[in-house]
Amino acid sequence: MTRWTGFVIAHRKRIVLAWVVMFVLGGYAASNLGGLLSNRFSVPGAESERGLNLLKDRMGDRSDGSFTLVATGVDTPADRVAVTAAAVRAARVVAGAKAGPLQPAGRGVVYAQISTPLENQDASKLTPRMRAAIGPARGARTYLSGYPAINHDTQSIFSKDLQRGESIAIPVAVIVLIFMFGTLGGVVVPIVFAAITIPTTLGLVWIFAHVMDMAIYVTNIVALIGLAIAVDYSMLVVFRIREELARTEDPHRALTTTMATAGRATLFSGMTVAIGLALLVFMPLPFMRSMGVGGLLVPVVSILASATLLPALLAMMGRGVNRWRIIPRRVLERRADAEVTGFWHRLASAIMRRPILFFAAAAGLMLALALPATGLQVTGGDNRGVPLTTESTRGLKVLESTIGPGALAPHQIVVDTHRPGGAYDPAIVAAQRRLVAQLRRDPGVQPATVAAPASVPRALARRANLVDPAGQVLQVRVAGRTDSGTQAAMDVVHRIRDRYVPAAGFPGA
After folding, report:
1. Which candidate, 252, 239, 317, places its Cα nearest to that of 2?
2. Which is it for the CA torsion 412, 416, 420, 422, positive or negative?
3. What is the DSSP string of 293-310?
4. Which of 229, 255, 230 minimizes the C-alpha distance to 244?
5. Which DSSP symbol is given to 57?
6. Which residues contact 162 (CB under 8 A, 6 or more apart)?
7. CA–CA distance from 26 to each of 194, 234, 311 (Å)?
């Protein structure tokens, strides 16, 4: 480490310049990152994923990109015609989209599914155009809802909340940094470290986003972990070099000693963080794998910066790290004295005298704090937490109060008959009817939401994406009474898979 630090000191300006170049390139790539990120949850190899792929390949239908048009005040046949026309106009905005039939949800309330071949993120961008195409629908009140519309409407709300949080957190963080470092020269170090490593890491994420699915939350992971590491490592190294500068007149010798001790510790710490987060890469879920890649890149870039940028920056600053004092000298001196006489020194000494006792006490406390986690009940994500201040969420509320929130994400039973025209085979049609009858008797299902090709004319089944153009693949849609993330909804899935579909008996499918 001593020889490496000497190399960094000798080439400090070139090293800082190289990092500035990476910062510029990474920042440019990060500015184009948003369009490459997605919010797609998939489970490769699962039965649901195979069904989604069939719908996408044979019908151009993606459930995560489907909209739901909800209308209230629909009291006459003319109103129904107007709402149907509005759904068709909305579908025309998206190439390959199809508007399903109107379905009753309650007194004067109807809804229609508008399937699209787009992923959620891409479909959400077209929400304003679809609303413009819908326009007024006679005397009815329309709401364009569904996952893409909710994503579009709530994104700005969440962004404003994040900005509000950052407007509070960043000044507080700066105040804490000023108090801890005591000088502007010291405060500059973590700020420069974070300002360079975070955009550089996002630039690497931009590269990975071209070869794999990357979640939209990766940017938050990179920013949070990158900022935490920047402050942590900078504080450790700056405090250490200040101790060495008090012992020697040579700043370069002080830096060499610092990197051989505190600098080595930051490298070891960074490797443990990287290994821990890298374990997410081995999860068989693309969403979590992308979080692992983002989490792995941050400490790796930080390790490189800790070994190059940080010592190069300190070599250029020299004693400047102690300049422009903000905290009074007597406070800093008192803090330095506390390191050998204060509370933490006394605590460390007591722990070293009785390590077993403190270990047992600390372990017991941690286990007691962890015990409530054994009763933790977790659920999948659903729409119960969205704010009811937008058109899409108000439409969701209408469905929740009439037919139930499950109408927004109906279960889709996909049947591949393995032969063109198989969906119209009398045996397959009879199996559909048996399945529909069982679904309508299920207590967790809204009977009025069951839609199957056997229940509607062929032309309508094609238009509603219930049958593919070749008549080989069909789907049966049914909405549960509860939202998709609840245990009740998952119980319905198990009953459909384990009981109703086998009992219906689709021959050769």
Report:
1. 252
2. negative
3. HHHHHHHHHHHHHHHTHH
4. 255
5. I
6. none
7. 13, 21, 21
User: Which candidate, 189, 200, 149, places its Cα nearest to that of 20?
Assistant: 200
The pTM score is 0.71
CA angle, residues 452, 458, 462, in degrees to nearest 5: 75
Alpha helices in 32-98 (DSSP H): 47-54, 77-92
Whether 468 and 458 have beta carbons less than 8 Å apart is answered as: no
The answer for residues whose C-beta is within 8 angstroms of residue 7's C-beta and 6 or more apart is: none
For residue 31, how many other CB atoms are within 10 A of its CB? 12
What residue type is 239 in one-letter code? F
- Chain centroid to CA 338: how far? 43
Q: Parallel, antiparallel, or unpaired: how do β-strands 103-106 and 109-116 relate? A: antiparallel
Task: Report the SS3 class of residue 477.
Answer: strand
Q: Write the single-letter amino acid at 33.
A: L
Compute φ and ψ for 68, nearest 5 degrees.
-130, 120
* Number of other residues whose CB lies within 10 A of the CB of residue 476: 25
The DSSP bridge partners found for residue 271 are none
Q: How far apart are CA 415 and CA 422, in angstroms?
A: 10
User: Could you give the 3-state DSSP secondary structure of residue 414?
Assistant: strand
- Radius of gyration of the chain measured on its C-alpha atoms: 30
Please provide the DSSP assignment of 93-160 as one string.
TSTT-EE---EEEETTEEEEEEEESS-HHHHHTTHHHHHHHH--BTTBEEEEEEHHHHHHHHHHHHHH
Alpha helices (runs of H) in 384-500, residue ranges in sequence order: 391-402, 426-441, 458-463, 487-495
Contact 392, 152 (CB under 8 A): yes
**Directed axis angle between helix 264-278 and helix 218-245, to 10°?**
160
184 versus 471: which is more confidently predicted?
471
* 420: helix, strand or coil: coil
CA distance 308 to 412: 54
Separation CA 474–CA 418 (nearest Å): 11
Whole-number pLDDT of residue 236: 85
Which ranges constitute the DSSP H helices of 183-328?
Answer: 184-208, 218-245, 251-258, 264-278, 286-307, 309-317
Token pair listed for 256: 């060499």
Per-residue pLDDT, 333 = 63
Indicate the pairing of strand 62-72 with strand 141-146: antiparallel
Residue type, 426: P
Q: Tens of pLDDT along 109-128?
A: 888 888 888 877 788 889 99
Q: Bigger pLDDT: 45 or 372?
A: 372
